[in-house]
Amino acid sequence: MDFSLTEEHIMIRDAARDFAQTELLPGVIERDNAQTFPDELVRKMGALGFMGIMVDPKYGGSGMDAISYVLIMEELSKIDASASVMVSVNNSLVCYGLEAYGSEAQKQKYLTKLATGESIGAFCLSEPEAGSDATSQKTTAIDKGDHYVINGTKNWITNGGRSDVYLVIAQTDRDKGHKGINAFIVEKGTPGFDIGPKEDKLGIRGSDTHTLQFNDVKVPKENRIGEDGFGFKFAMKTLSGGRIGIAAQALGIAAGAYELALKYSKERKAFGTEICNHQAIAFKLADMYTEIEAARMLVMKAAWDKDQGNNYDMSSAMAKLYASKVAMEQTVEAVQIHGGNGFVKEYHVERMMRDAKITQIYEGTSEIQKIVISRGVIKG
Ligand code: CAA
Ligand code: FAD
């Protein structure tokens, strides 16, 4: 067993850290206020290889492993979780989904641009009446011979307004239940495909989240991913990897808040000494550090399982469940250590506390992770 990072991993982590400090930190508060994220920064992340981290270089990707992916996700998330969710969705839901299950023609046409950041992707599973209960898809995709016709509504879609490529899950044959669900590639601008207004959110406000409407949207048959009826398994398999990305995002939010709290506690004085010298604060720091290290172990284990070719359904669910809990609890502590300053935007930790909450909700709520883990435990 070896807990150390390779030199290559350290270089990748440092490159992400440097990018986050120099490019993401300036303007992060303004972006949170304005609910924006400039295309220019997405292009820069693409140029660094962050939009197709694990994609084979023959499709324009960086050809890195899952450990590199979580290192990059952690560093970006320490500074700006809105940037990192964009990276996570593009990498582990859209690029991975296409690379693992798409046809060669689909990879050539879509993946090559997604992996470089020239295109951006969205993953569209959730609906107003099908969130956790994802098999209850109401969106339909009717087989018309050489094409499908999609009708329905998808909500909460990350990158919803700015994407070029949308992976859309829909029900083709209701009688077959989840085995009648398919996944499709839908291009922005397809007639009948409309993008609703941006959601006004508690956290990750720089990430754009939209409702999407499909009104008689014609999609060619060659845009279906995999065999007929593979769509639900496609979503589940893809989400197992996505959950590693969100676990790493939660870890990064927690670690970023901890680093700020530690620094502040060594500078701020009360009762004649730096507040870190008061045991109540020192013990908070001890708990934060321990919890974050424990979360890091689970996140790394899930990434390692993926790299080793092991099944990672359970390890990714455990990593997400635990890291998101740590992110929520420890960002609250970081605000507390900052006192009144923790409550204002200038000190960053209040944003991190708001951003942490979503990691317990998207890509499967914490309750859903417990369903996945408990089923795995019982099944053995
Ligand atoms: N890999 C392969 N197949 C899987 C699977 C996996 N990880 N998980 C389930 N399946 C298969 C099952 O084997 C079953 O197939 P068979 O009948 O052939 O055996 C089929 O899928 C249905 O599975 P279940 O019976 O377990 O289905 P369920 O209705 O009990 O639901 C669930 C299972 C785990 C709760 C699932 O519905 C789920 O994950 N819900 C949460 C949805 C979610 O995570 N949404 C995230 C949206 S994307 C997002 O959020 C992005 C973002 O924010 C940035
Ligand atoms: P519900 O499923 O209605 O759940 C409500 C509550 O009930 C939760 O606490 C849940 O855990 C609990 N619950 C439900 N069922 C059970 C059960 N069986 N046992 C115990 N508790 C249960 N989706 C996408 O497809 N693509 C995206 O890009 C995307 N991005 C998102 C971005 C944001 C900012 C947000 C807020 C959501 C995003 N989502 C996306 C949707 C997200 O995945 C769902 O919100 C999530 O899966 C929960 O579904 P829901 O909101 O319908 O809640």
From TrEMBL:
InterPro entries in the cross-refs: Acyl-CoA_DH_CS, Acyl-CoA_Oxase/DH_mid-dom, Acyl-CoA_Oxase/DH_mid-dom_sf, AcylCo_DH-like_C, AcylCo_DH/oxidase_C, AcylCoA_DH/ox_N, AcylCoA_DH/ox_N_sf, AcylCoA_DH/oxidase_NM_dom_sf
Residues annotated as domain Acyl-CoA dehydrogenase/oxidase C-terminal: 231-377
Domain Acyl-CoA dehydrogenase/oxidase N-terminal: 6-118
Gene3D superfamilies xrefs: Acyl-CoA dehydrogenase/oxidase, N-terminal domain, Butyryl-CoA Dehydrogenase, subunit A, domain 2, Butyryl-CoA Dehydrogenase, subunit A, domain 3
One Pfam family in the UniProt entry: Acyl-CoA_dh_N
The protein's required cofactors: FAD
TM ranges: none
Protein keywords: FAD, Flavoprotein, Oxidoreductase
Domain Acyl-CoA oxidase/dehydrogenase middle: 122-217
Membership in a protein family: Belongs to the acyl-CoA dehydrogenase family.
Alphabetical list of PANTHER family matching this protein: ACYL-COA DEHYDROGENASE (PTHR43884), ISOVALERYL-COA DEHYDROGENASE, MITOCHONDRIAL-RELATED (PTHR43884:SF12)
Protein name according to UniProt: Acyl-CoA dehydrogenase
Species this protein is from: Olleya marilimosa
